[in-house]
Amino acid sequence: MAATIKDIKAETGLGLATISKFLNGGNVRAENRVKIEEAIKKLDYHPNETARSLVTKRTKTIGFVVNNISISFSGVLLQHASAYLHSRGYGMMICDSNCDKKQEEENIRFCVEKQVDGILITPTGKDADFLQPAEKAGIPVVLLDREVRSDHFDCVTIDNRNAAERAAHDLIKRGHRRIAMIHSEEYTGRERYEGYLAAMEKAGLKVLPEYIYAGEMHSPELGYESMKKLLSLKERPTAVLSSNYEVSLGVIMAIHESDIRCPEDVSLIGFDELILPMVLNPKLTVVAQPMEEIASEGVRILLKRIEEGKGVPPQRVSLYAALKDGDSVRNVG
pLDDT tens, 197-217? Predict the structure, then answer.
């Protein structure tokens, strides 16, 4: 039979109130804490989390609704969030929206029904209506990587426009004038495209329609098909800015299938310092998002909401993403 709190009482001689306080994260005297910990180990005691949640009104579980679990960015973000949550005594329930808004709505309702203490989400769309079930249930939500059309929720992103503007400026500074961009119509893709446009405008450079390719979402297919078309142009761009890691995968596939060399024939800057930049030859120049910081900051804000209430207005945290030089950009002119 599994050990109970009464067994700990009999083993330690302490009162149930003291033992319960310790088990629920409260402070007890050092000598009592040692006695309880030794008894827990000896008796192989495991708390009844269901019973505890009925008392504390908390499940110590966070729902993470990810827009697409198959992409590398999501996996790394989940890993960092899970580690930080574990260090704070929380578990994580993962729900994959598979880039589908209806499935995303169902995931939010599922998290609410499971009575999670809070929700982290990388949203699929722009509207915030699907978050209403969580809001009505009083479950705090923190957006990661992307914003929605609402100022009711905490949000942690990078400064996408500034990051892309700095990347485009680096190409311009190196003498490039025919600069193409491949981006998605998702939040990050649009923001990064705006940054590219800002850099081109400041430099007095014309943005050629045939150098711009946009897709509904980030994917290797978008990068591959777009790069194929760019390479088929009579006057090819001398440089390409790829707005996303998955897009960069497709861009590089297209380059490898052609007689084009990087950076001799075309320079390339991508986003995210994941596996690709480390194994690619030449080493890819990238805008490196602070993945661990995005996750840890999002978790920190969420747990603060859970543990200290909702008195503070929603936070908008915009983190800096560094441009890390590789060997995929050459000087021209």
Answer: 999 999 999 999 999 999 998
Distance CA 185, CA 101 (A): 15
260, with CB counted inside 10 A (0-12, 13-18, 19+), is middle
Burial of 109 (0-12, 13-18, 19+ CB in 10 A): middle
Q: What is the DSSP letter of 310?
A: S
pLDDT tens digit sequence for 225-252: 999 999 999 999 999 999 999 999 999 9
- Using a cut of 0.70, tell me whether the model's pTM lies above it: yes
Place of tokens 């302490």: 14
Is the Cβ–Cβ distance between 107 and 139 less than 8 Å? no
Beta bridge partners of 154: 142
What kind of architecture, by CATH, is found in domain 61-158+291-320? 3-Layer(aba) Sandwich (3.40)
Please name which of 165, 159, 117 lies closest in space to residue 140, comparing C-alpha atoms.
117
Cis peptide before 277 (omega within 30 of 0): no
